[in-house]
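R.M. (postdoc): so does anyone remember the format we settled on? I'll just put the structure tokens first.
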């Protein structure tokens, strides 16, 4: 059974930093590429960052490139999203996803498994 639980969200000031964590079941961590998506109020869910099964490939949305970093610790069954230089437009509910795929070195599409989300709010 795939289980994803996000944590680490909160309120942060413009220019601040946060690290989100996604705790996955052991089978999920061993078998799936992992990614983060976000959904701002009134908008659709959008891709943020992804990491391949063994961490060899990473991909980022242009909006977060250079500010966010994704990493996975397979032994701990966790995937982290380190966010720095946060901006008000980063305000959203952030979701962990499992089971998506890369095409070459680029992220292609999310998988079927989603966490419940964690709120990130950046004040100006």
């Amino acid at each position: 059974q795939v289980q994803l639980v996000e944590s680490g969200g909160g309120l942060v000031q413009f220019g601040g930093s946060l690290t989100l964590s996604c705790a996955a079941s052991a089978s999920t961590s061993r078998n799936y590429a992992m990614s983060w998506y976000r959904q701002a109020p009134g908008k659709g869910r959008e891709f943020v960052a992804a990491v391949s099964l063994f961490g060899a490939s990473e991909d980022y949305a242009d909006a977060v490139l250079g500010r966010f970093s994704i990493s996975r610790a397979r032994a701990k069954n966790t995937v982290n999203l380190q966010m720095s230089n946060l901006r008000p437009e980063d305000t959203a509910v952030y979701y962990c996803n499992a089971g998506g795929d890369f095409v070459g070195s680029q992220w292609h599409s999310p998988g079927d498994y989603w966490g419940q989300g964690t709120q990130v709010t950046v004040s100006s």
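R.M.: ...and that's the designed sequence above, right after the tokens. Also worth knowing: The mean pLDDT is 95. The longest strand covers residues 92-103.
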